[in-house]
Specification:
By secondary structure, the protein is mostly helical. The protein has one domain.
Length: about 100
């Protein structure tokens, strides 16, 4: 559920590329003058902020401890997958006790 909502929000704001693309290599020695890198950095910062503003306070530590939107996304994916697995195990336990 969280992934669908955040994915849609990032796509709407044209920031999803920052989640699926690593920082591009610079063709220049001066990374500040490379427009492709500058554009990616701006998109990454906007995606980081969008994700951080859309999570609950309890998850802020997870998303503020990384540097890229991709790392944020992956950290949330791991955290929510673990929670979903725990809920599934709990439901299976409850179902088995009904028999």
């Amino acid at each position: 559920m969280w992934a669908a909502y955040h994915h849609a929000q990032l796509k709407k704001e044209k920031l999803w590329t920052a989640v699926v693309m690593n920082r591009p290599a610079s063709d220049s020695d001066d990374k500040k003058s490379d427009p492709v890198v500058e554009a990616w950095v701006a998109m990454n910062e906007a995606a980081l902020a969008t994700i951080q503003m859309s999570v609950t306070p309890v998850h802020l530590n997870t998303v503020t401890s990384v540097d890229t939107a991709k790392e944020e996304w992956d950290a949330l994916k791991v955290m929510f997958a673990a929670r979903a697995n725990a809920q599934l195990l709990l439901l299976m336990d409850e179902l088995s006790s009904l028999e």
